[in-house]
Amino acid sequence: MLICKEINKTYSQKILSNFNLNVDPGEIVALLGPSGSGKSTLLKIICGLEKLDSGDIIFNGQNLENILPEKREIGMVFQKLALFPHLNVNGNIKFGLPQESNISEISIMLNLLGLKGFEKRKIQTLSGGEAQRVALARSLIAKPKMILLDEPFSSLDTDIKIILAKEVKILLKKLNIAAIYVTHDLSIANKIADRIVYLDSKK
Ligand code: ADP
Ligand code: MG
Fold this sequence. Notes:
This protein is 31% helix and 25% strand. It is of the alpha/beta class and 203 residues long. The chain starts with a strand and ends in a 5-residue tail after the last strand. 38% of the residues are buried. Bound molecules: adenosine-5'-diphosphate and magnesium ion. Residues 39-40, 150 line the site of magnesium ion.
């Protein structure tokens, strides 16, 4: 489904060197690696927020080179919250909804993520775990074929992190959405992933 072929990326130093990765439909891959090894850079390249120097990204048979991020059908959830503070929960999730889709999908998504009754809540009143559920809901409601999760729960307490990782796995399997889950926490990777891939810091 996703083929990353010989990806190279250099900023002031080489970050990714002939990096290869294949992800099957519905597969959850955990990407582990030390800080600075290029995990976030790789995800940004895959979803189109960053350019690669050389290599190819093929998604469902199509080279993504000239495809805009919003046309890629790849969702992304960041470590740092990217929710809109001036919109409530409902407004934030609606933002991810493609124009042609049905508003009732919001309540289905809220139910799936255990956020029933949260529609009118202000973002500032949410706990860290609740806020990340909203971020996930916003991303999933666009029905991506794949979702890229960049240490989405790393700022949360261990207990909540593990519960969320398990829930997200069940949800992704149910919706048949493939994922790359970036973490530096092996126990979380073991909980969520079908397969673990390591990105080392050797350049
Ligand atoms: P990770 O997510 O594995 O911690 P990153 O992909 O964020 O690593 O960063 C890898 C390296 O690339 C780091 O040394 C970081 O400082 C550098 N880097 C990331 N983004 C940029 C950028 N836009 N410009 C210059 N250097 C960058
Ligand atoms: Mg990172």
